[in-house]
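= Paired protein data =
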Amino acid sequence: MTGGTEYPADASDPDVETTIAGELLDQALAERRALVQLCVYALDRARSSGVVERLEEGLAGIGVTALRPDGERFDPSVHEAGGTVPTDDTALVGVVAETELVGFVDRGRPLRAPIVTVYTTR
C-alpha cells in the first residue's frame, strides 16, 4: 500500500475467521456459565418440587448434573460436611445421611460440592 493507507482486514481471511470464531466461542461459553449459575441460584430458591425437577432436567440436558450423595460414603474431597447425626449402627458411621444443599458438576468438572449430614458414632 502506498501513502501509509491501511485497509481493514478481509473477513474471508482464515486468520480473521479464526479470531472471530474464537471470540464468539469465548462469549458463548461465558454466557453459558452465567446461565448455569442463574439456574443453580433459582434451583436453590425453588419452593416447588416440580420446578426443582424441571431445572435439574434442563441442566442435565446440557451436561450439568445434580449431586445428592445420600447413602454414599462421605468423601471430604467431594463432599462438604454441614453437620452430623449420631447412630448406633457402626455400618452407617461415615455415610452421608442426608444432602443439605445439592452439589453440581459440569461434564465432570465440579461447580459446587454438596453439603451433607454425616452419620457419626453415638
User: Anything to note?
Assistant: Residues 63 and 107 are 5 Å apart (CA to CA).
